[in-house]
Amino acid sequence: MQASADKVTAPSAPAKPTSRWSRPWGYTLTSWLGLVPFLLFCLLFEVLPVVVIIQNSLVDSQSGALTLNNYQRVISQTGNLHAFQNSILLSLVTALSGGIFGFLAAYGVYNLRANWMRNFLVSFSSIAANFAGVPLAFAFISTLGVTGFVTVLLHTWLHVDLYNLGFNLYNFWGLALTYTYFQIPLMILVTLPALSGLRPVWREAAANLGASQWTYWRRVALPILFPSIIAAMMLLFANSFGAFATAYALAQGNINLVTILISFAVNGNVSIDPGLGNALSGGMIIVLLLAVSLYSIMLRRISTWQGR
Amino acid sequence: MAFLELTELTKSFGRVTAVDAVDLSIERGEFLTLLGPSGCGKTTILRMVAGFETPSAGNILLDGDDITTTPASKRAMGMVFQSYALFPHLTAAENIAFGMSIKRLPKERIKQRCAELLELVGLGEKDRSYPHQLSGGQQQRIALARALAIEPRVLLLDEPLSALDAKVRVSLRNEIRHIQQQLKITAIYVTHDQEEALAISDRIAVMSKGRIEQLDQPEEIYNNPRTVFAATFVGTSNRFNALVVAAAEGRCRVEQQELHVPPLTNIRDGASVLVMVRPEEVNVQKEGALPNSGANQIAGTIILRTFLGPFTRFHVHVNDETTLTADVPSQYARELYVAEPVVLSFAADACQVLPTDSSIKEAEKITESEKV
Amino acid sequence: MQTTQAVAIAQRQTRARFGIDKVFLILVLIYLTVPLISTLVFGFTGSHGIDFSTLGQIFSDKDFAQTLSLSLELALASTLLSVALITPTIYWVQLRLPGVRPLLDILSLIPFAAPAIVMAFGLVEVYSGSNMLINVLSLGLVPLLSNPPFNIVNTPPLLVCAYVVIALPFVYRSIDASLRSINTRVLTEASYSLGCGWWRTFLTVILPNIWPGIISAALLTFSTVMGEFTLSSLFSIYTFPIYLNQTGQEDPHKAASLSILSFILTLICVLAIFLLVRRRPGQQGEIELTAAK
Fold first, then answer.
1. What's the pTM?
2. What is the band of C292 on the pLDDT scale with cuts at 50, 70, 90?
3. What H or E segment, with its residue span, contains residue C248?
4. In whole angstroms, what separates CA B250 from the centre of its chain?
5. Are A253 and A198 in the same domain?
6. Domain encompassing residue A172
7. Do residue A79 and residue A119 come from a single domain?
8. How far is B53 from chain C (nearest CA, A)?
9. Is residue A112 part of a domain?
10. Does C6 touch chain B (CB under 8 A)?
11. What is the ipTM of this complex?
């Protein structure tokens, strides 16, 4: 304290007047230099692809002039619009199904007394959450496909013919069922830390003030968990919306989804030209940005409440 | 019949007995503190009274009603937690209103009572603040208001001040005591800080290993501890292992030195005893000064001098195994320095004598565990 | 007498609580295991009982070994690159440029807004086309890389870099959480005061303490790359998941066995996380085991 006061009152220090500035400048410069490899990498492989997509989506693929034509085609052509509707609906449905069941299952895991059981289930959840893409599609075909194990089982043992009853693994709902397979474990994994943040002392305080179990959940636990649940569901939404491999392996283009359409554009499929492909990608980015923003807002709310 | 009665209250966790057949009677409007080191069972007792733990054996009676099996949400006891436990998604006022809204009190009444309680704890303008916007002390005051809002029959406080800064602790403990006296509410307070306990309690139950060692008013516990644990846990003292020479005359021998203590009853000649003297009862005088009237005189050399504000603490080396502590009001301590040969003196009445066999070892164990 | 009543009530309460939440857990577990069992049965039962012939066919297929080894190489390269690039960067930022954290947060969230398919599309456009804006923004590096001698469009190196970007969110989150759980700044200052320089501090003080975070980030990246289909398919690089898809589309029984193989692979990765992370005594195994596909 004394020293700084002296510095203030005695500016005529023996050191060079520039030295007080150059050190901070040099320090900051090397600080930024240390960041360069990473920033360069992100620029080249993360940022520029997004930039080029946005740029090309606003440009006519033949003439090179600025235009909103590509986006117009996305909205006007029913196929494209339908793809967006399908993708968004699929993502909402699986976010909700994965969210609700995942939350309830997470609560079950959280309440387990045996540590080994909890660890086992967490590991299992992470495996299941990772088990997406092509192998998952095959697994579901093996289970609920036309000659799948469960389909055949139900037919021979219970004389229930799934496909006659209208079930079809290869349509929207079959895909939703398949997606839920990795959405639920993802929800479990993301919700468990949030449940741990629910301090047991709050339950005791609520009970002490006269709240029943149900009242505690309704007025304390769920409101506190609300940002975490929303953030998790946004994560699930983004996960589902951007998924490609599972849909591709399962439906092979029978289902109209945005990701599949974009893959046509990359493959040079005649029905989709690059301009449209860029606009579709741009549309995807916009939808996902909304989800990610909501996710970030919720995360910030969680950290203020937790006081961290 | 006391207001709150705990009869043979026991709690075991597997093979560990946390609370061992404790009997406790608390009067209406009394401020009782459960004092002891961590693991002594004080918090477990509090949690059983609150209803968060089920007793393994024993009963809890409140105003004649047996509440041992009543669920926590129906006991009408207000609890203040060590970690405040304010609901983070509610404002201060909403936190306070929580218990009342569960009872479905009319909105006007809730609002009015919230305002009253906020005034009572001195946070009138903070009604719309969220817990994360309040300091620790403020949060704890809101927690207190929240507990009082439901008009509890008993107020339970679980080490409410341990998470706070020293200065806040002192002012808040006085506020808690003041509010308790104002509202004439029965309170059970749990703490490991003996200074806190001495300052604000009507009675203190000193606990160790699941049992109550002594239940008395603060001054009694301080001046007349009845067990070794109570004596060493509350306050500091000098300790001597002594052999009783003549019990009726109050004479003991510590190594070569004879000690004069109050006349002893219930102790035979030749028994081992623990003699304790509080540092503030020990006078320090320079060697060669006029002899003091204290019955016990011990010579030694000052090895450490610690200025503690109102008084100065001296550590005096008597022999290789014994270092005594003496607290002297600072205005009389000015001429005493380290390496000064001095004479310590204290009255016979200042000694507390407890019969025991391996007294020193047990006392040392306690202070060692407190160091950690 | 009274307390045995109390104990009984408490037991009944816990048992009642047992019912509600565990039911959903069991339902979910059934839902998660049935496909696995079905696939197992489907893949390994032929016309007469258990039949591992599909496995034999797979293992003898030349493409199997080739694509598997390619995927392993890619996974290893991506893992090493991502950990080596991101860990020092986060540490550096925490120490020297804490104000830059928001920028890093945004960079780590971009892959959520631009998932694999979009990234694939963008990368192909950046490195195959000639775009004035891009050339300028990249400070001349993109034209450098797009053309000979690098020519990285649709090559494995580009794929590796794309994988690192895909894995960026979890690697960042995992290592950032680890660095924040240990008192990084204080440890660093203590190390400096004892004479260690930046690198030495990083290697001998920080790294050993964030080991769990690094392991989980590494293994997550590894398993993500091993299972990644979108990018390799759109870059036309023949990796293991592509092989899986091709083979599986022809023969559903082979598809099932390959599925099980893939599952076992992921199982190994995740178990490895748990074992390697738990080995350190007194460490908080705070692992985030999530991946987005």
1. 0.80
2. very low
3. helix C240-250
4. 30
5. yes
6. 69-306
7. yes
8. 9
9. yes
10. yes
11. 0.82
